[in-house]
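Tokens for chain A. Residues wanted.
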């Protein structure tokens, strides 16, 4: 699924490997913070989402939104790049999983919903 992460990375002018890791961190955070099982449904229905989650270097999503931001900025990403990649991932997830599944997943993580 390199083309998937190449496309996501291109929105932020970063390599596919960095995009995969960033999306993995975001998904790990969402899983940890979700108030229901909707994240699992989104991951299962979105191509390469499980692959990205597996590339999150053992990050389990704990530590809140600040820990997520620290990890993403530790990759060398700025807020604009993070937002661009998250928006592109959400767009791809909507195309695969459907609006209802993705909207439920985002709403299940109150701290993240304000950024997406």
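Reply:
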């Amino acid at each position: 699924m390199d083309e998937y992460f190449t496309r996501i990375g291109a929105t932020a002018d970063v390599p596919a490997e960095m995009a995969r890791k960033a999306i993995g961190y975001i998904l790990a955070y969402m899983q940890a913070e979700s108030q229901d099982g909707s994240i699992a449904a989104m991951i299962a229905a979105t191509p390469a989402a499980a692959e990205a989650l597996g590339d999150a270097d053992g990050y389990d999503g704990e530590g809140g939104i600040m820990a997520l931001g620290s990890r993403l900025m530790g990759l060398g990403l700025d807020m604009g790049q993070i937002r661009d990649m998250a928006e592109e991932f959400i767009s791809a997830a909507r195309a695969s999983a459907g609006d209802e599944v993705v909207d439920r997943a985002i709403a299940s993580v109150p701290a993240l919903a304000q950024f997406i």
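The chain has one domain: 2-113. Residues 37 and 104 are 9 Å apart (CA to CA).
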